[in-house]
Design brief:
Largest interface: A-B, 30 and 30 residues
Radius of gyration of chain A: 19 Å
Oligomer: homodimer
CATH architecture of the largest domain in chain A: 3-Layer(aba) Sandwich
CATH superfamily of the largest domain in chain A: HUPs
Largest sheet of chain A: 6 strands, parallel
Shape of chain A: globular
Order of helices and strands of chain A: EHEHEHEHEHHEHEHHEEE
CATH class of the largest domain in chain A: Alpha Beta
Chain lengths: 288, 288
């Protein structure tokens, strides 16, 4: 139910926490959607999932510098707080927490969280400082916004595993809820980084989704050998000269453990560079 | 005021958290004293400090394996839950949280917290896995026991800095309170590890406290050159053949930054092996 009250915009961690604590004290269930802003339908679906099951929904908007590598797109990452706020207000979001970098990382901040092996492969191999940055900022956000539930998108498959590992290992009292990937009409996964793509690149970007569809189709037809699946997927990508595949991984669902045969629920995850833009996508190939 | 109700002993993290949450919901201020058990007067002074300013006091007793190095004293570390409970009950402690290792570290636990440079010198140099173990278990305990205030002893000077760094960097909503070191009649700092000492070693152990007293005396007499102070301290230790000094550090109070001149509040910290037992102590040499 959209709230009639307007969304409050809070920049201070202390104020955000006090407001959340007061709401919890009054018995409200708090939902939390951490984002880097530049909100698209994928983010908004997380907000809607939270609104459905929580009394009050908090969205954080913070482009976290520590999860970007030195040569990544921190500076050009899209930012549009005004439009984000309008969208969240329309949905009935209770609070937007939009701290400055100084608020999150005052001088002298040094703590980093390493969640171990789940962060070591795939995205973690390609972007070694990424998941320590993610884990640390998520843990910190969970202290500032001590929500009952937090909502993350399946699109960032490995990130959902990292956050679950973090929450379990550190006994954080926030339930992690993973919501389905939201896609454009043609199947491309919603991502703030899609904004970087030229028209031609946008066409090439479809190759990621198509590779997932191809593999799913092959598995449905009875192909169980991952070497064969991988060969067919690479063949598929060869038809997209503007796409440089970073990795194609076949892992046991809910883990980053590679499988050699599709004999259990398996996620295929793919990362590729389309022009200068690095995109990721993933899909369960079989099972429920 | 000692409680008339008996202390509750809880082994389950979920139960501990639920009880603390319920007490907070009713408006009580929660104090927390994390310990490894084998409680001595030093620990009990922390409990008393908590009882003084909090409505309910939780003590955790957990010999955390991850803060011991491979060749350290995890196996022989003293344990006496029965006696610990009796002492805490007598004081009026509300809850003892005494989890098993499996409760704290179920299979697959991998997360580790690195608080950065404050953990890199002194104890961190001598025991490289120690502070990541401490930081991780303290953060986890703070999630299970979301206290308003947590009490730590000044004896573990660097540990208090590590915990403060952790709490600040991750916005943990628990206030860290540091209480004075409690000493035996002759000045030896209370430590569970003192139980390891033979009668002769106990005499040699006094050298740590005496070295701190010597340095404080020299500073009072006007010696400000740290090289000179260090020379005199090493000379002092030379008279204790059973004592192997690990380090003597002179650092700016509240930091691990070495000083070369005593021109600001300075802590002297010392670590030494007496027989097989590694002991630490520290003292402010000047200032308030």
């Amino acid at each position: 139910m959209p709230s009639t009250a307007s969304t409050q915009l809070i920049h201070s961690a202390q104020e955000a926490r006090a407001a959340v604590e007061a709401a919890k004290q009054s018995g409200d269930v708090i939902g939390f959607v951490p984002t880097m802003g530049a909100l698209h339908e994928g983010h908004l679906s997380l907000v809607e999932a939270s609104l459905d099951v929580c009394d009050r929904t908090v969205v954080s908007i913070f482009v976290n510098p520590t999860q970007f590598g030195p040569n990544e797109d921190l500076d050009r990452y899209p930012r549009d707080l005004e439009q984000d706020l309008q969208r969240l207000e329309k949905l009935g979001c209770w609070m937007v927490f939009a701290p400055s970098t100084e608020e999150m990382y005052p001088p002298g901040s040094e703590t980093l969280i390493d969640v171990g092996s789940v962060a070591g492969t795939m995205e973690g191999a390609a972007r070694p400082t990424h998941f320590p940055g993610v884990a640390t900022v998520v843990l910190k956000l969970f202290q500032i916004v001590p929500a009952d539930r937090a909502f993350f998108g399946q699109k960032d498959y490995q990130q959902t595993l990292v956050v679950k590992q973090l929450v379990r290992d550190l006994s954080v009292p926030t339930e992690v809820v993973v919501c389905p990937t939201v896609r454009e009409a043609d199947g491309v996964a919603m991502s703030s980084r899609n904004a970087y793509l030229s028209t031609d690149e946008r066409c090439q970007a479809l190759s990621l989704w198509k590779s997932l569809q191809l593999a799913k189709q092959l598995v449905a037809e009875g192909v169980t050998d991952v070497t064969e699946l991988n060969r067919r997927v690479q063949q598929h990508f060869a038809a997209f000269p503007g796409v440089e595949v970073d990795y194609v991984a076949f892992v046991e669902a809910g883990t980053v453990q590679p499988v050699t045969t599709i004999d259990r629920p398996t996620v295929m995850a793919v990362a590729a560079r389309v022009g200068k833009t690095r995109l990721i996508d993933n899909q369960l190939l079989n099972g429920a």
